[in-house]
Amino acid sequence: MHKSTSSSSLGPGGLDLSKTFFTPIDGGAPSSPTKRHTKITVVGVGNVGMAIAQTIITQDLTDEITLVDAKEDKLRGEVLDLQHAAAFLPRVKINASLDYAATAHSDLCIVTAGARQNPGESRLNLLHRNVALYKHIIPPLAKFSPDCIILVVSNPVDVLTYIAWKLSGFPANRVIGSGTNLDSSRFRFLIADHLDVNAQDVQAYIVGEHGDSSVALWSSISVGGVPVLSFLERQQIAYEKETLENIHKEVVQGAYEVIRLKGYTSWAIGYSVASLARSLLRNQRRIHPVSVLAKGFYGIDGGEVFLSLPAQLGRNGILGVTNVHLTDEECEQLRNSAKTILEEESVLEADIDSNVEERLLSIFGPNSKDDGDFTNDVSDANNDVYEESDDAEYVEGIGEASDDEIGEEMEYDEGIMQEGPQRNMKFESREMLFVSYQTYGFSVINRTAQKVHGSGEPKYLVICCCRARNGEVKKLPNE
Ligand SMILES: NC(=O)C1=CN([C@@H]2O[C@H](COP(=O)(O)OP(=O)(O)OC[C@H]3O[C@@H](n4cnc5c(N)ncnc54)[C@H](O)[C@@H]3O)[C@@H](O)[C@H]2O)C=CC1
Ligand SMILES: CC(=O)C(=O)O
């Protein structure tokens, strides 16, 4: 499909019409690119993607928006429909393409593509279908916009944010899930309704999973600066715990109810994501409950898990997590929510082996070379490692070696890698993409490092070969 844009200025015969309408002033310099040109990509132009796109456009949050979808006619129809509203909207360049090259140089990539829930279906049920799609979506986004922020919306949003983080190789501050920003808005609406105040004056957070195990932070709710529960206690006004629980239940059931009634949710998520886009791109430093890498916060352990915590957002993505005080009960609920998400992640481990070439290209750039054809060399090297190691069960793990690893011994014994998460792997570096199967014990039985010349400085590529130690290798590919 041809790129469709709302700002074409070419007339018949390639004449630039804009130049015929305006006469340059004497002594004027040619126009320079504007300093603050922002570009947003939205992947998936379904109910959610279009609600987000139209809210972003009406709120004048970007200079350029690129829409991507797998369905050509739907994409073309949606973009034309939006372009036809140009006379009523802030000026924005609207592009649409099936090709991710059109997303290049985006500041923010919002991913909404994917299956959605049927009435009554849980978000977690969508996991395997949407992980499969993400393998084709995230690597090209990362390749064409290596400095962007990725904002994940598709469900289950917390696990998919983790997947997007792994597939992109981005630092954790630049991969964010829309998380419970929406749940918190539902929560604030319900509290405002109970107290007959404006929802914007209610400060209240839902944290944890964007889903059934979410946690309501009752202890920190305030209205117009008044902490609600301690105020009620001070005034000796009795409130039923059950009333609070029912409000939280209504938040959790909110999405199910809308889906039962109209088939999908769209407007609220549109506004929710637009508010995140504003805070990020306009460097607002506002606090939003969004899905972040939460390991280590509030005693959350057991693996790398993304879930929602109130975080400060700005041009660099996540600027920090707010130190909100949680009661013991709230902490316990949050850790349980983390457990729910981690269980889903562990089921996935055998699923996230993504396309090696795409991942490498996203690190090293499209013209990378290693003594000839880069991608062939990589697959050869992979095979070599595999064949040389008789007892290898699976080849996995690609990333950049950190400086102090280069020139190290290439062979390791079982002692190097401990049972458990990949952080124990000696060769991990910040750019390491991933070695999956965190739930299994692995030993690294071989690895190689190659110098690869990409568009920038030469980098070292590590290819390692792992062997499971706990007898569960039958579950792995290549068996
Ligand atoms: N995080 C949140 O708070 C919310 C998340 N969602 C989630 O957002 C997702 C989208 O929901 P809807 O827009 O209602 O669904 P939809 O079915 O209307 O739209 C999905 C779109 O994704 C496109 N798509 C599928 N595979 C693709 C691929 N490989 N590349 C590009 N595009 C592809 C489809 O063609 C379709 O246009 C669902 O996973 C839903 O559960 C929905 C509401 C709130
Ligand atoms: C569908 C969904 O995740 C929501 O509206 O909360």
Explain the overall architecture.
With 479 residues, this protein is an alpha/beta fold. It is 34% helix and 18% strand. A six-stranded parallel sheet has the order 3-2-1-4-5-6, sandwiched between helices. Strands 7-10-11 form a three-stranded antiparallel sheet. A three-stranded antiparallel sheet has the order 12-13-14. Helix 2 (47-58) crosses helix 9 and helix 4 packs parallel to helix 11 (356-364). The structure holds 1,4-dihydronicotinamide adenine dinucleotide and pyruvic acid. Pyruvic acid (PYR) binds next to loops. It catalyses: (S)-lactate + NAD(+) = pyruvate + NADH + H(+). Keywords: NAD, Oxidoreductase.
Q: Determine the structural class based on helices, strands and strand pairing.
A: alpha/beta
Amino-to-carboxy terminus distance: 41 Å
Mean pLDDT: 76
Say which molecules are bound, naming each kind only once. Answer: 1,4-dihydronicotinamide adenine dinucleotide, pyruvic acid
Gyration radius over CA: 25 Å
Strand content bin? 15-25%
Q: Specify the number of helices.
A: 12
Order of helices and strands: HEHEHEEHEHEHEEEEEHHHEEEHHHEEE
Largest sheet descriptor: 6 strands, parallel
The counted number of beta strands is 17
| Fraction of residues in helix | 25-40%
| Low-pLDDT runs | 350-357, 363-455, 458-479
Widest sheet: strand ordering: 3-2-1-4-5-6
The global form is globular
Pfam family, one: Ldh_1_C
GO cellular component, one term: cytoplasm
Family: Belongs to the LDH/MDH superfamily. LDH family.
GO molecular function: L-lactate dehydrogenase (NAD+) activity
